Amino acid sequence: MIVTIDGPAGAGKSSAAKALAKRLGFHFLDTGAMYRAVVHAALERGVDLDDAEALEQVAASLDIQLTDDAVLVDGQDVTRVIRTQDITTATRYAADHPGIRARLVELQRAAAEGQNFVTEGRDQGSIVFPHAECKIFLTASERVRAERRYHDLTARGEQLTFEEVLEKQQQRDQRDASRPVGALIKARDAVVLDTDGMSAEEVVDRLHEIVMQHQ
After folding, report:
1. How far is CA 4 from the centre of its chain?
2. Which residues contact 181 (CB under 8 A, 6 or more apart)?
3. 182 assigned binding-site residue
4. 126 known ligand binder
5. pLDDT at position 14, please?
6. In the predicted structure, residue 123 carries a pLDDT above the cut 80
7. Which residues span the domain enclosing 73?
8. Segment 55-59 mean pLDDT
9. So what's the pLDDT on residue 159?
């Protein structure tokens, strides 16, 4: 069974999807981490992110392994370093690249073949797994999403104001909705869950109920 969870930045998809997968006994696939990993590797190698061809070559050369708890690139654990605001802002270079997106979509489908997975991202229900048994669109109001992101970043020691986080999120929302490939689109058969006012546990409880209704 494939459960897809899509939604805008800061909606809490990663943490909710990971917790849901654990409760279901499913594997967890954080697709956004794959794009972050490509950008991080490119920066580590001194590649100009504006050089689309060089960036695609980096993506093609990487061995990206996602476990339920870690992101490994060529055997190196990059789980934490790919979550910085700088990497978040630069991820668009990989996410907007048709060649890179095609390769990563191929890897995502291969990873989930014949397995039970909860997968999260922007295009999982609409593009990557259009025949998924359960599709969910997780969202929240703009300010709530920015507040969550702000607390996550400050907890990691990053020095940013809430206004800076909100502005970057607004820019990302616009890019996610308008990118030429893999744009954020709610699948027609997705169940919408607005998490405003809900605790993390309440969100997972509701997600679990939705999945049970689709089994």
Report:
1. 11
2. 96, 97, 98, 101
3. no
4. no
5. 87
6. yes
7. 2-210
8. 96
9. 86
Q: What's the rounded mean pLDDT across residues 91-106?
A: 93
The letter for the amino acid at 208 is H
Domain of residue 82, CATH code: 3.40.50.300
Query: Is 135 assigned a ligand-binding role in the annotation?
Result: no
Q: Residue 78: inside a domain, yes or no? A: yes
pLDDT of residue 157: 86
- Residue 61 annotated as binding site: no
Burial 113-126 (b: 16+ CB within 10 A, else e): eeeebbbbbbbbbb
Please report, for residues 28, 126, 134, the alpha-carbon distance to residue 137 in angstroms, rounded to integers and kept in the order given.
17, 10, 10
Spatial separation of the C-alpha atoms in residues 47 and 143, rounded to whole Å: 34
199 marked among binding-site residues: no
Question: What mean pLDDT, rounded, does the chain reach?
Answer: 92
CB atoms within 10 A of CB 105: 20
Under 8 Å CB-to-CB from 23, ≥6 apart: which residues?
204, 208
Sequence-distant (6+) residues with CB within 8 A of 29 are 66, 108, 111, 112, 117, 118, 119, 120
**Is residue 53 domain-resident?**
yes
Number of structural domains (the chain) is 1
Beta bridge partners of 1: none
Residue at 104 is within a domain: yes
More confident residue, 111 or 193: 193
Say if residue 114 carries a ligand binding annotation.
no
For residue 10, say whether it is annotated as part of any ligand binding site.
yes
The residue whose two tokens read 């668009």 is 92
Q: Is residue 215 a part of any domain in this protein?
A: no
